[in-house]
Each structure stands twice: as C-alpha cells, then as structure tokens.
Amino acid sequence: MVELLKAGTSAPDFEALDHDGNKVKLSSFKGKPVVLYFYPKDDTPGCTAEACNFRDNTELFEKKGIKVIGVSTDTVSSHKKFYNKYGLTFTLVSDSDKKISESYGTLNGSTDKRVTYIIDRSGKIAYVYEKVSPKEQGTEILSKLQELKLA
User: Fold this and answer.
1) What is the spatial distance between Cα 93 and Cα 112, in angstroms, rounded to a whole number?
2) Read out DSSP for 2-26?
3) CA 47, CA 38: separation in Å to the nearest integer?
4) What is the pLDDT of residues 115-128, one digit of tens each?
5) How much is the pLDDT for 70?
6) Mean pLDDT, to the nearest integer, of 40-53?
7) Residue 34, pLDDT above cutoff 90
8) For a pLDDT cut of 90, what percent of the chain falls above it?
9) Which of 97, 108, 120, 124 is 20 to 30 Å apart from 63, CA to CA?
10) Which secondary structure element, helix H or strand E, spans residue 147, and what is its range?
C-alpha cells in the first residue's frame, strides 16, 4: 500500500474533470492555498456531512482566497448529481482512473480514504489530516489555515 504524502513534500500536480466536465489542473491554483480533500463516495452520510460543512463555510474560504477541491473515484455524472442535490459551492474532481488517489496515497481498495491535504501557496503540502471529522471538517480546516498563517 502506498503511504500518504507528508507535510513539506510537493503536492503532485494533476489534471482531471470536475463535476461540470471542465478540466481542472492543480498547478493553476499556485499562489493561493488549496484544501484538497479525498472522500470515499458521493451521497453517503459521512461524505455528505463533510461536503455540506465545506459548503456552509464557502464564504469564509472565498474571503481568504482559499480553493477547496473534493476528490473521489466517482464519475463526473455522479459528482454532478451530488453537487446539485446538496447545492455544493466548490469543485468536485472525478478520479475514476484512480491516478490522483494513487499519487496522494489515499486509495483504499477501490475508493478513497477520508484524508485532507492543505497545500500552501508554493504548492507544498503544509498539513495532512488523517483523522477527519466529517461534520466539522470545513471548520477545522479554517482554524488550521489560520494557525499555519495561510488564511
């Protein structure tokens, strides 16, 4: 099994399709902090709670210039349904070929482990959340971003 990436390492770049079928490239956000969160499956209780907590904190993330990207091995169409059903306000990226998950060490069988990476303005991993509380994740991340002086 591949290990999770550690703080201080460069975040692997990727290009993938978002919930609308648009290409998203991680390196295009260089210069701003990125919250890259991996989750197991669209529209399941824990994943929905986590996504909704990020959604509920969107204004604070945007005010601070922080990009939030959710990643799972679900398809673009699954992401689109999930995005619309819960009125999500941030990017969901489809990793159906599992290349992003493999490069970040989050793959757990055929789905992702629930892991969040905070990536600094230079593209380095500033913090890794291995024990994620889905209902409080967005709030916890905002606090950690402040502590790391990224917000």
Assistant:
1) 13
2) PPPP-TTSBPPP-EEEBTTS-EEEG
3) 10
4) 999 999 999 999 99
5) 97
6) 95
7) yes
8) 86
9) 124
10) helix 137-147
Task: Sheet containing 91-94: give its strands across.
Answer: 91-94, 67-72, 34-38, 115-119, 125-129
Is 47 an annotated catalytic residue?
yes
Q: Which amino acid is at 18?
A: D
SS3 134: helix
**How far is Cα 38 from Cα 30, in angstroms, rounded to an integer?**
19
Domains of the chain, residue spans: 15-147
Q: Is 15-147 a domain of CATH 3.90.1150.10? A: no
Query: 89, 60 in Cβ contact below 8 A?
Result: no
Considering 11, 24, 47, 150, which one is annotated as catalytic?
47
Of 87, 66, 29, the C-alpha closest to 141 is 66
**127 three-state secondary structure:** strand
Q: Which residue has the tokens 């986590």?
A: 50
Q: Report the SS3 class of residue 59.
A: helix
pTM, to two decimals:
0.95
At 7-18, the pLDDT tens digits run 999 999 999 999
